[in-house]
Amino acid sequence: MKADFRKNRTRAKIHGTAERPRLSVNISNKHVTAQIIDDDKRVTLAYATTVGSKETGNMTELAAKIGSEIAKKAKKAKIEKVVFDRGARLYAGRLSALADAARKEGLEF
After folding, report:
1. How confident is the model over 57-84, as pLDDT tens digits?
2. Three-class SS of residue 38?
3. More exposed terminus of the chain, fewer Cβ within 10 Å: N or C?
4. pLDDT at res. 13
């Protein structure tokens, strides 16, 4: 219940545009998913996930791998700056690892 309120509060303040799209992150118990979204056109510009991959390691390591992968795909799509959408998650642990890895690859937020 609290997570829903937190997600709605976060999403109400964040909006991705063509020049600064939204980096939306979803972390479940088994998988990590990140996508870059242009909310004006309602289009996903880049997408990375652990679903279907054979990657090993703990969830923090997998989140870091997805962070660097989404940053590389963003560079291919000529995206340099994004708005970070953490959803209902607090900025710590796995989410922080994903964000740090994306920043190391050159993504700005």
Report:
1. 999 999 999 999 999 999 999 999 999 9
2. strand
3. N
4. 82
Taking the C-alpha atoms of residue 82 and residue 84, their distance in angstroms, rounded to an integer, is 6
Quick check: 84 and 101 in contact, CB under 8 A? Answer: no
In this structure, the chain runs to a length of 109
Residue 1 in this model has a pLDDT that exceeds 70: no
Residue 22 and residue 52: Cα distance in Å, rounded? 24
Report the alpha-carbon distance of residue 67 to residue 79 in Å, rounded: 14
- Prediction pTM value: 0.85
